[in-house]
């Protein structure tokens, strides 16, 4: 019996299948680009108008506050929304308490009250500039919330408690609506974004190391990569903090991410020192040391091209040990080399072994995170930002001066709507204080305000005025708010979208007792815009160079960190020092933009050189603390004294004295090697490597290119 032949698909069926596949592919692509933006807009609008409806039902005095809160809290992921909501509520509570205290202390003395508010705003803005994360948002809120409560109560101090309670209620309502909508409807978990960041970090670092070892990356390109890696470290910590507020993010996962960031910084620092040594050897020309270490670099680069499993890492380290043993034998059997060349070889070997160990720790932590395995790690502490003191002081001073200036305008103009200018100027001076480009941020918000002025007027008097209940009101206001939310969902026009949303929330949304007054509307428009203009001018005029990431302040702060490495308490000093230097480089990267200029690259080189020097100094201090008295220990202490003196008062003479002390210490350490026990011999070899790193770093400083005063 013959089998029935299979029926071939008809042309119509094949065409339909191809069309369906094409539509599916295009839809998937759209969902991951524009689709995500429109889902974000839909969630933002649902949260906004839900809060507005509840505010009307509860009869709150200012329903627009609940709406404005949801607009401000509209963030890409649920973790970011929950994190910002928590700190917004905390800042609101503290700000309302401060307003109650200030009005209670100075109920009949407006001048003193404004001075107290200016001091409070200065402290809060300085705190925001110091932290530079979502915790800083609490400081910002605490500052300008006190102004929002206290200023309207200047003439009627008895109303301040009612204003504070109403503000907390309205903000709390907006927070609840935002948290529920963004966490329930099409939630976008930030923990997934964190894992994508971890994967990109791992792949980028391995590729970078392989490119350097194969000499495909120039020193200048390597420096810029280090600058970007510093920004990545800060971004991962920020993402981890947001993911912490999501369900399923455990404390052990937080420790693993901290350990991953710490392992990355350690491996990056060791590799930079190794790269600088390799570059110096290659710049000096062919020599016996370069011929011995180049095969080790090539073998390690080849190993980095494969998956770094535990077995592969063990194989790489065994192969490295074999290469080192063969190189030592070849060096011993060949002609005698100079002392400097022997030091270079020993240093290269020490750094290669150290980097292999650092890389193994880094890869192990990565695989644990990627495979969602819980690893028992000791928490090395979170990455902590550090802002130069001059920037903190300037941010607080600028915000206080802005408040006093706009308060003087209020008194001089006798224009009731100037209160809006006071609030807007204070808000944006505080919000932009942590930005590396505050004028650009405020300028974008100002563009949003200017764009919203005619749109808000049309929406208010030609559309909202005709709405006879809540649902037509939503239809009338929805296009304007959706437009602002759409713009805020992208990085290019984010500030413009925020400006449109804030401006519209303040002016368009009706109150329970609505009044359609064209004159009052225009007056409010002008005063709100004037406040943003004042904030923009203050950043342009008052201490314009005292902004986050300015290369002059970063260079000075890097130098101070190197000084601290010589004298600060040793407990976790290496981690703190690494954190602070990387954070300063991250600020520099944010301010420099995608194409750093020559002056910025000089500061980057200085920062990386000081990072190498600081790590070596800290290791020397740890070795001294664990060693017994003797000539070697005394000579290392002399190095630290001379180096500390040079870093506190840089000069050619001081640098040369420190260099001589390093040479003397090297002689003393090598003299102690023959009689040393194996454990002490390992420490002495480490000391020689650190002395060599300090010596070459000082030579770079003395060359004049990286000289800092």
TrEMBL record:
InterPro entries: PHBA_efflux_AaeB/fusaric-R. It comes from the Bacteria. The keyword Phosphoprotein does not apply. The chain crosses the membrane at residues 38-56, 89-106, 112-130, 137-154, 160-186, 417-433, 445-464, 470-487, 494-514, 520-543. One of its GO terms (molecular function) is transmembrane transporter activity. It is a multi-pass membrane protein. It is found in: Cell membrane. It holds the Pfam family FUSC. Keywords: Cell membrane, Membrane, Transmembrane, Transmembrane helix, Transport. GO terms for cellular component: plasma membrane. PANTHER family: MULTIDRUG RESISTANCE PROTEIN MDTO, P-HYDROXYBENZOIC ACID EFFLUX PUMP SUBUNIT-RELATED. This is Uncharacterized membrane protein YccC. It comes from Duganella sacchari.
């Amino acid at each position: 019996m013959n089998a029935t032949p299979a029926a071939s698909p008809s042309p119509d069926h094949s065409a339909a299948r191809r069309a369906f596949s094409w539509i599916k592919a295009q839809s998937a692509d759209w969902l991951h680009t524009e689709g995500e933006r429109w889902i974000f807009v839909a969630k933002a609008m649902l949260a906004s108008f839900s809060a507005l409806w509840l505010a009307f039902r509860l009869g709150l005095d200012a329903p627009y506050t609940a709406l404005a809160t949801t607009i401000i809290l509209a963030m890409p992921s649920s973790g970011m929304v929950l994190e910002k909501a928590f700190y917004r509520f905390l800042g609101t509570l503290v700000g309302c308490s401060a307003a109650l205290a200030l009005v209670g202390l100075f109920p009949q003395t407006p001048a003193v009250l404004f001075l107290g508010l200016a001091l409070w705003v200065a402290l809060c803005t300085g705190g925001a500039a110091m932290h530079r994360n979502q915790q800083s948002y609490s400081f910002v809120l605490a500052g300008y919330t006190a102004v929002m409560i206290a200023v309207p109560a200047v003439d009627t101090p008895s109303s301040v408690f009612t204003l504070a309670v109403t503000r907390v209620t309205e903000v709390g309502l907006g927070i609840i609506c935002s948290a529920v909508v963004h966490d329930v409807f099409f939630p976008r978990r930030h923990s997934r974004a964190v894992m994508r960041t971890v994967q990109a970090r791992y792949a980028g670092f391995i590729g970078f190391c392989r490119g350097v070892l194969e000499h495909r990356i120039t020193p200048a390109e390597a420096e810029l990569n280090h600058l970007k890696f510093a920004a990545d470290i800060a971004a991962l910590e920020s993402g981890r903090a947001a993911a912490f507020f999501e369900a399923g993010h455990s404390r052990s996962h937080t420790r693993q991410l901290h350990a991953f960031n710490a392992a990355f910084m350690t491996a990056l620092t060791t590799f930079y020192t190794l790269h600088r040594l390799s570059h110096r050897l290659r710049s000096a020309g062919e020599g016996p040391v370069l011929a011995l270490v180049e095969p080790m670099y090539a073998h390690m680069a080849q190993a980095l091209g494969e998956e770094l499993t535990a077995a592969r890492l063990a194989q790489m380290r065994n192969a490295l040990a074999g290469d080192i043993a063969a190189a030592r034998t070849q060096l011993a059997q060949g002609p005698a080399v100079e002392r400097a060349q022997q030091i270079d070889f020993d240093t290269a070997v020490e750094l290669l072994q150290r980097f292999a160990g650092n890389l193994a720790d880094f890869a192990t932590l990565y695989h644990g995170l990627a495979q969602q395995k819980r690893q028992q790690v000791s928490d090395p502490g979170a990455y902590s930002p550090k802002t130069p003191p001059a920037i903190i002081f300037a941010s607080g001073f600028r915000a206080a001066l802005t408040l006093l200036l706009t308060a003087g305008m209020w008194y001089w103009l006798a224009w009731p709507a100037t209160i809006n200018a006071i609030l807007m100027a204070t808000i944006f001076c505080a919000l932009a204080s942590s930005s590396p480009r505050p004028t650009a941020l405020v300028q974008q918000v100002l563009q949003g305000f200017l764009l919203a002025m005619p749109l808000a007027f049309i929406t208010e008097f030609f559309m909202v005025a005709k709405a006879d209940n809540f649902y037509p009101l939503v239809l009338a206001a929805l296009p304007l708010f959706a437009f602002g939310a759409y713009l805020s969902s992208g990085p290019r026009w984010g500030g413009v979208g925020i400006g449109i949303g804030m401006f519209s929330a303040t002016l368009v949304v009706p109150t329970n007792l609505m009044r359609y007054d064209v004159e009052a509307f225009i007056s409010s428009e002008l005063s709100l815009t004037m406040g943003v203009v004042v904030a923009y001018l203050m950043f342009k005029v008052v201490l314009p160079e005292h902004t986050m990431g300015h290369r002059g302040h970063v260079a000075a702060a890097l130098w101070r960190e190197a000084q601290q490495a010589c004298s600060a308490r040793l407990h976790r000093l290496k981690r703190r020092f690494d954190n602070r230097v990387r954070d300063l480089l991250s600020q520099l990267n944010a301010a420099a933009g995608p194409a750093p200029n020559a002056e910025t690259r000089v500061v980057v080189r200085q920062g990386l050189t000081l990072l190498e020097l600081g790590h070596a100094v800290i290791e020397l201090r740890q070795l001294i603390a664990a060693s017994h008295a003797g000539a070697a220990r005394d000579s290392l202490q002399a190095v630290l004294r001379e180096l500390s003196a040079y870093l506190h008062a840089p000069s050619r003479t001081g640098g040369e004295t420190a260099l001589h002390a390093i040479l003397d210490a090297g002689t003393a350490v090598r003299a102690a090697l023959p009689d040393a026990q194996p454990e002490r011999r390992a420490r002495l070899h480490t000391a020689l490597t650190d002395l060599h790193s300090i010596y070459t770093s000082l030579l770079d400083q003395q060359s004049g290119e990286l000289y800092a005063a």
